[in-house]
Write a structure and sequence with these properties.
Length: 568
Amino acid sequence: MTDGLRKGLTAYGDAGFSLFLRKAFIKAAGYSDDALDRPIVGITNTYSDYNPCHGNVPQILEAVKRGVMLSGAMPFVFPTISIAESFAHPTSMYLRNLMAMETEEMIRAQPMDAVVVIGGCDKTLPAQIMAAVSADLPTVVIPVGPMVVGHHKGEVLGACTDCRRLWAKYRAGEMDDSEIEAVNGRLAPSVGTCMVMGTASTMACITEALGLSLPMSATIPAPHAERFRSAEASGRVAAELAKAKGPKPSELLTPAAFKNAQVVLQAIGGSTNGLVHLTAIAGRTPHKIDLDAFDRIGHEVPVLVDLKPSGEHYMEHFHHAGGVPKLMKQLGDLIDLDCRSITGQSLREIVAAAEDVPGQDVIRARDDAIKPEGGLAVLRGNLAPRGAVIKHSAASPKLLQHTGRAVVFESVEDMTRRVDDPDLDVSADDVLVLRNAGPKGAPGMPEAGYLPIPKKLARGGTKDMVRISDARMSGTAFGTIVLHITPESAVGGPLALVQTGDMIRLDVERRSIDLLVDQSELDRRRAALKPATTPDWAERGYAHLFHETILQADDGCDFDFMRRKGKG
Ligand code: FES
Ligand code: MG
């Protein structure tokens, strides 16, 4: 006898009557007593017409339900909100915590013995995992999987690294209107998530490394039959977790598991956003992602996966080369193989079963790494006392040590208005500075950190410049771009003090980012700053909650009251 519908009974009178009522109502949907007297697996439905990345969710749901029933449990699908990168205003990040809160409460509110959460498009996987970790029911995570690649004039391409690259070509006048239109129909040729190592792929790989999803589930292309077989198997695992009452996320997410996730994040040349989301997930547990420890991991861990934007290939090639199990095998002693997975296996067993694919060149050996160090570095200095991040694997090596003159944009709107102005006083050696684009200031830390190269410089052949901000950047972008400067300017971080003409020094080797202005002058500028007031947009509703409680990037941009009790 399992908990099933009995779980969480609150008395409408006595417990017996509560169950009687509950059964009477669910039977309205045609269920028999035999169907109901079983362990129950809740499944989140994150389908939305606005979210083509989740376009295969209906088929995934069918497969999960099949797997749950084949293992003798009962599936119940329930909706949660869905967030798509391209359609979420003002930013998808603004909504991530809303989705996490909503999903957590629906897991708590409804009777279930285990839960399957389905996510993929950048914010949905972290939101669903944050929810599941806080609710702490036995959980299986299913990423929806990457799109298949596109083709254009014999070239393989994909969203959205090539979106940016080809748009830059168009801006520079190297591609005409009809060709860019053709490209527009080829960059995202199927449902599924962006198929480069952007945030969606990064989070899927991290999830697998944490042991929260099935082996290989990060990389199976969204439209493939294998994706649905994996979903069916996930349903079976969820049913077994429901019967065994575990393991729960709190049993799997050990410090060693979080270390493994950070090693994988570095080795895949993962998205800078992955660090923010992993920090938020850890914030829901007794553990913590320490930026300096993460940077040290980066010194030891080479980039082994040859995927855009750091390398050449796409997610489906990573999959056919052996996926995350093969990567963890190549990482050897950098991974703690005693960590466990929802399947009941240790990572040692998972890695032992990794496929060897002769001749593959996507997942490299450690002595044949793409980059000798990990993809991400943490910078500090008088501009970023609580840290900043750079994806140096996707930057121009010659700019990693650079001192240049600041050209400051006050906000995303200011940048949009002026960056292409032919009269803008800017040269290729300058440092473009964007502020008021952080978690609170924008709001929601938009992916505006990838400032466009001013048109007049792009036309003259400039491909990259040092760009710094308190914003985020798409994981699919390439450039020498310093992000997540913390504290952000809107809460009085030193970024608020920079003026056009100041000199800024970036030294990635020394992990530093500094404003070369005397302290006395900085003090004078600070004294002249206007005190922060509540902006109009934050006067009511979710916006108010967001504005009042959003944490900085080094705390994962969670809401202060959503973190585990007792934290900071
Ligand atoms: Fe959804 Fe890229 S837009 S994953
Ligand atoms: Mg993205």
